[in-house]
Amino acid sequence: MNPILVLGAGPAGLSAAAEIAELGAPTILVEREAYLGGNPKRWHYSLLAPDLRPSDEILGPLIAKVEGNPRVQLHRSTTVTKAERLPKGFRITLKTGDALETQEVSAVVLATGFDHFDSRRKFEYGYGRYPDVLDFKELEGMIHDDRVLRPSDGKPPRRIAWILCVGSRDLQVGNPWCCRMGCAVSIKQAVEIRQKHPDIDAYVYYMDIRTYGLWEDLYWKSMQEYGVKFIRGRIGQVTLAEGGSQLLATGEDTILRRPTEVPFDMIVLASGMEPGTGTQEAAALFGVPVGPEGFLTPNLSDMNPVDSGLPGVFLAGAATGPKAIPDSVTEGMGAALRAYQYARN
Amino acid sequence: MSAGISRGPTDSVPAYYPGCSLDGLGKAYEVTAQQVLHRLGLSLDRIVDYNCCGATEVKNLSQDVSVALPARNLALARSMGRHQVVAACNGCVYSLARANDAVREPATRGRINATLEEGGAPTYDGEASVQHVLEFIHARAGPERVRAAVRRPLTGLTVAPYYGCLYTRPKRYTGAGTTPGADDPEHPHFLDELLEACGAKVLTDFSAKTICCGGGHALSDLDVAVAFSASILNEARRAGADLVATICPLGQINIENHLDRIRAAYGEEVLRPVVYFTQLMSLAFGASVAEARFRDNFSRPDLFLRSRGFA
Amino acid sequence: MLSANEIRKVVQERNQHQKGTGKKVVDVREEMERLEAAGEIVIHRIRPENRPVEVSTLFGWKKRIPTDRLWHHKSCGQCGNIPGYPSSLLWLMNETGRTYLNEPHQTSCTAWNYHGTATSNPVALAAVAARNFHRAFETGHFPLIHCGTSYGDYKEMRKLLVENATVRAKVRDVLGKMGRELVLPEEIVHYSEWVHVMAPEILARQKHRVEGVVATVHEPCHYYKMVPEDAVYDESIYAGQRPAVPSGILMALGAKVADYSTWYDCCGFGFRHILSEREFSRSFANLRKIRPMVEEAHADVAITSDTGCVTTLDKSQWIGKAHGLPYMLPVLSDVQFAALTMGAHPYKIAQVHWHAASAEALMTKMGIDWKTAKAEFREYLQALKNGQAPELLHPAHGEIETFFAINKGQVLPDEAPAAPAGAGGRSR
Amino acid sequence: MPIVEKSLVTVDRSERLEIEGIDVSGDWNTFLRSRVQTDLDVRIVDWIRSQPQGDTISRCWQCGTCTAGCCLHTDYGLSEFNPRYFIYLAQVGYEEELRKYATTIWRCVSCNKCVERCPKGVKVEEVIHTIGSYLEFTGGAPESPADRFDRAYTENLLRRGVLDEASLFRTYERMEGRTMPAGEMLKMGFQLFRSGRLRTGPLAHRTRGWRRFGNVLREKLKEDERCRRASLSAAGGTGGHSP
Amino acid sequence: MTIVAHLPQRALTLTEEESAAPPAMELTGRRRASPEERALSETIFAEFHADPRYHEFVLGCLNCGECTTGCPAARFYDFSPREMLQIAETGDATTLWDALQEKIWACCQCYTCNMRCRFGNDIAGIISVMRELSVSHGVASTRKTLAPFGRSLTLLMTVGTQVSSDMIQPDFFRDWGPFATGSDRAWGVGADIMRRAIPSDVLQTTRSSWEVSVQTSLELFRIYEETGVLDMLRGLDPDLTEMLIDIIEERREEFEEARERFRTELEGMSGPVATFRG
């Protein structure tokens, strides 16, 4: 049996590769970056919502399962440049640096993941212009390293605001979908900061809170136990406050029904999820249809979300839409199983 | 919250907490309640040296005082060896139950017991459950035994049952809806059943059953108190009631206290006699209009009842 | 990092495929071609003799700005109370050797009234626009819109006429009754776009250096917030994140264009408010615009490119003194400023005396000898009083018109008896 | 110039003003006052959370169930009485806006429907009263009739352990500067006396051994109030001052 | 259950009007709409939803409030574009009616809300639709609001401009200070001379912003007649409308007479009279 190709080594890809190996089949795991772990690794995610466990605790074992596994052929800093359909599977060309390598694979799992929305595209928030306007992925790193300080002057902030739905649910930037994670992750960050620095006031500007299912607990606790404040209404623009040392967040408090203009020391943007860099390429290489949002589309998303509908091509994780890590891991397993079944028959 | 309030063991003769109202302006309530309990073969043991429960007022000034006041009464009941305290006033039921809720927290209980000790009162172990006298009658006797005890059915009387706010509310304290023997928090019906058993026509869909009478502001916010009292009477009128039967002494007093104002603002036609439910039960059990102390009520139900042939 | 234009292109493409509420922005010019082919409309095309210059707009689309043989579509507010605004533009055209037509066969766009009192409707607005479009067409001159609101309104109306067959039919019917047909200009062109593309020629004639001048720009809302895809953007100006006009000309002239936090805000004109609710206009203009311009950006002058904005920002300042806001920051249009740098007479041409906030300090900074000019102007006024004929920038329009174009005595009734009060008059 | 939207604005103006020889009195110099909310003060909610009656405030998620059932808001039509809104203002820390309701918030009739229905276990009624206390303690706002009644009531019961209703009635009416017409008073007194209910003054009930307990509670009450106010100033107050 | 609101004021039987009235009015002292106003509000509500622009402008709302962020009116008025969109989207006849009384007039029509809206709503546009309706139905408060516009409406209807220099009288614009009108104060000559000093003859008119040919003004009036604007104006101010019709009628006659007198000159010309001949 030819090996099964897994494209992308984020939570979904890692889980798929580990599972295929577990089933006893050979796997080729291809990752564009030099490291394994995808976005969580890239941005040094701190604790993960909703259970507040360190991301390393989840990713660590997954990475360990593929690293040094004789059935998993690891290709870091590698992309797939060509895929020819065979009667069964594909002949693929791998490119590492300048080196090209051709292999035959019996099935493919596409786990190309997502990219965080580039907040510079939301001009009115001044991300990239004002150093104290952060993207929440950067704050993740700061929390991870326990150095929550204002980039502008290195001082600890007194008052932080989170703006939800940046680059999500917004036709202005062309992303009308919900990123699913923004609420939970922002609230989690606020909780982490309040835990460690109770003197920092945390405000979350929201339209709706979508801590769906059991994640609601995080939202409730953040209010009751950690005193995170929620202001309904979005910030429409961020400018420098008088004196220039603080940021002025202007918006409407839709409960107060009045415009608000409040100075903050730091503003955190909950940047949404967009189709990953590799997604378009993968779609083109393997002929998987892409939906209007730019994510890969399963054939029957409600019946079998990991089947592309094309023989031998399976999908997992945030490549098909915004997804949480546990869901991505689960989909990785599902896709692995389907790919294995296909490859074996 | 959905677990309900643990009621603990029941007493054959629970402690009875009269509260200031029943010893004061609501004397008719107390007298007729005793008559009714007696006829139904139920008895209660009065807490002799009770003190005011603090109602809804004291808590606005001090949490600890507002818990210590009812806690002293509960402690007295416990020192009488009782697990159950029955009160006839909605406000008392609320305060006592609220104290129970507060002392569930060990720190609070410690603080309250220190206060009790300092004041020379027995300490409270948090083990007394609180019940409204209506619930008590309903649970111990029930409509069947009431029906059996009726000597003179209240035939021809259309009664609007008025429960008031704090009888069931909030269920967090009273356990309404989730505790066996407690009434429904949104649609209470125990009074309906008892009065029906007495032969009266009860307006079970009376829309003002649990609305507030404004009694909390009986003196301090006359506009609200008058409007709310009037609205209860007006709803009774709209529903075709002859009189309003209540289980809440504050409600009764509040409405009656404002009769002149209600008359002036909304006209004579809105007015209806307002009686304690035990007065009606007592009447049904054979007491005379005088014995059931209908003359005590400012709204003069005695005149009305005599006009309907009740002696 | 994508450039602003690239981002907008991505968004535009994605929105075109968006399910649900995504509004697909269609290039109305393509639709116009289709309609013309179907014989429904006539396109007033920009011809070589209009000497067009190409610029790019919000989505990176190209827009051609004609620079010659233009039909001035005037602005009622400008002509009414800041006449130095159109005068400077005409002067600039004379100086740069452009031909144009400034004639009485036009109405205003009537959109000020519509946005102020709503005593109109889209069909009427479209018909008014189309009447003016046709008039320009029959003169063989390309319309150049002086006013930001007219520009916004005409963009909207052109879009409406293209997209809505019912309105189109109604308007064609109305026009037919007055012997006109439905003509839509290939581009709706704002005068500030003309100034923008004329920058090299203006620069070549610049007399006064303005390096020392700090200017703050107020971007007129109706220029870019209505039908945004028609506004001019340039990747070299604010990284393409804000409209390129009128900032571009100031940058080209060498003025320091200073940023301030409320650049995105409206001026407070409010259409209705500037006449009957000036409490609002003055509060907004002073507190949200002038104060930040002065205190954050330390501006010497506020530059804008619309009638209403000049009016509001300028005239509202004086009363600020009553509330501790004694700024009196000069407010000029881009074209007045450009004309001044080219040596236009500050009073005869730029007519700065119509402005409430004095521009004298600014002119000193620009090296303009306004004192002499002022004395000249005073003499000129006396001469006019003594019956001297006025100096005109162009031949008197009577020569191009039939006799009853003007009938001064009867244009307006002397008084309007039914009107309760004058515009902005006290009604109590 | 007319301000047509009179009900939509608040204004700053000088009734008499002349600038550079021009009379610009009244409308001519009127400026509108900004409605923009600029302050957020966590100290309000911190204090309320620290009070046993207010500790549930942070659970509120603004669903509005409380207001939907509020008899003052819904039945009485006092639309500015909005418990959900009061909680929000306190939660987020809009002190100035909250203070506008100082004269409304005490009108809560304590019917507890809000507490009954709150899906998150906020003791709304108690929280509302705590917010009221906050406003009273910090704002130097005049004591509300409800506060006066609470005090009169508590005073009254602390005297004998049980309430002397007639005396409470008299005391409170006096506090409010109201007097019952003599005729009415006599009529009522007679009816109460006849039915054996007029037990006031020396005739009133008294709880045995109350003196000691009452004194302890009195001290407790004073101590509590002192603590509440102290915790407020320890929290930095919010610019207000104790009356 | 709004029980208190059911309380009668002395009268025990509710009149038909009372029972149909929106609740809670007696106690709060808010003015209750008269039956005529209620009927009108229903008509306006129906017309509002029937307007073809309704579905084009109102798409949906996340209640994010970004529209309000940049709204100038919201800074000073108890007004927010979000609220207006909510009224448009979910309001009933009463809420729409209430909005027509004051709030629609607070809007500055600056279109900042449209530019900000992440849902693509046309909020300024839908407010215009509301305004149009209240104008054409002559809503009393609208008539009051627009009362000061008699002069500019006259100018607009007769020559198609809106503001002329003789309208900026120092006494009506005291807040603009002594030099706002470019006037005689500083220069010692009258307003007519100040206008003469403008270097374009078309602009030298004091009574209109620029000179407008008679033919053009008649064409404009024709447009108003044909497109229903005159009817709208009639709803707003019938007297003004009649006066304008008289003015225009007179002018038409003069125009026809002039056309007759200069027939020879015009002979052979087709289409519009005022043709460019340069």
Task: Give the gist of this structure.
The complex is a heteropentamer of chains A (345), B (311), C (428), D (243) and E (278). With 345 residues, chain A is of the alpha/beta class.
Topology:
The complex is a heteropentamer of chains A (345), B (311), C (428), D (243) and E (278).
Chain A: E1 4-7, H1 11-23, E2 27-30, H2 38-42, E3 47-48, E4 53-54, H3 55-66, E5 72-75, E6 78-85, E7 90-96, E8 99-105, E9 107-110, E10 114-116, E11 133-135, H4 136-144, E12 159-166, H5 182-196, E13 201-206, H6 216-224, E14 229-232, E15 235-240, E16 247-253, E17 258-264, E18 266-271, E19 273-275, H7 277-286, E20 313-315, H8 325-344
Parallel strand pairs in A: 1-2, 1-9, 2-5, 9-20, 11-18, 12-13, 12-18, 13-14
Antiparallel strand pairs in A: 3-4, 6-7, 7-8, 10-19, 15-16, 16-17
Chain C: H1 4-16, H2 28-37, E1 42-44, E2 53-56, E3 62-65, E4 70-73, H3 76-81, H4 84-95, E5 100-101, H5 111-117, H6 122-139, E6 142-145, H7 148-163, H8 165-177, E7 183-185, H9 191-197, H10 199-204, E8 214-218, H11 221-224, H12 247-253, E9 256-258, H13 273-276, H14 278-295, E10 301-304, H15 307-315, E11 331-333, H16 334-341, H17 360-366, H18 370-385, H19 408-411
Parallel strand pairs in C: 1-7, 4-5, 4-6, 8-9, 8-10, 10-11
Antiparallel strand pairs in C: 2-3
Chain D: E1 11-12, E2 18-19, E3 22-23, E4 31-32, H1 42-50, H2 65-69, H3 71-75, H4 83-92, H5 95-99, H6 113-117, H7 124-139, H8 145-160, H9 165-175, H10 182-194, H11 210-234
Antiparallel strand pairs in D: 1-4, 2-3
Helix pairs in contact in D: 4-7, 8-9
Please give a structural write-up:
The complex is a heteropentamer of chains A (345), B (311), C (428), D (243) and E (278). Helices cover 45% and strands 9% of the residues of chain B. Chain B is α/β, with parallel strands linked by helices and 311 residues long. In chain B, α2 crosses α13, α3 crosses α4 and α7 (142-149) runs parallel beside α9 (190-197). The longest helix of chain B is centred in the last third of the chain and has 18 residues, at 222-239. Chain B is globular, with a radius of gyration of 19 Å. Chain C is of the alpha/beta class and 428 residues long. Chain C has three domains: 21-191, Glutathione S-transferase Yfyf (Class Pi), Chain A, domain 2; 193-376, Rossmann fold; 389-428, no CATH class. In chain C, α2 crosses α7, α6 crosses α7 (148-163) and α6 (122-139) crosses α8. Chain C is globular and about 60 Å long. Chain D is mostly helical. Chain D folds into two domains: 43-142 and 227-240, no CATH class; 145-215, no CATH class. In chain D, 49% of the residues lie in helices and 3% in strands. In chain D, a hairpin with a 2-residue loop joins β2 (18-19) and β3 (22-23). The longest helix of chain D is centred in the C-terminal third of the chain and has 25 residues, at 210-234. The relative contact order of chain D is 0.10. The model of chain D is unreliable at 237-243 (pLDDT under 50). With 278 residues, chain E is mainly α. Chain E has two domains: 33-145, Fumarate Reductase Iron-sulfur Protein, Chain B, domain 2, CATH 1.10.1060; 149-169 and 183-267, no CATH class. In chain E, α12 (150-159) packs parallel to α17 (238-261). The longest helix of chain E has 24 residues, at 238-261. Chain E starts with 15 loop residues before the first helix and ends in a 12-residue tail after the last helix.
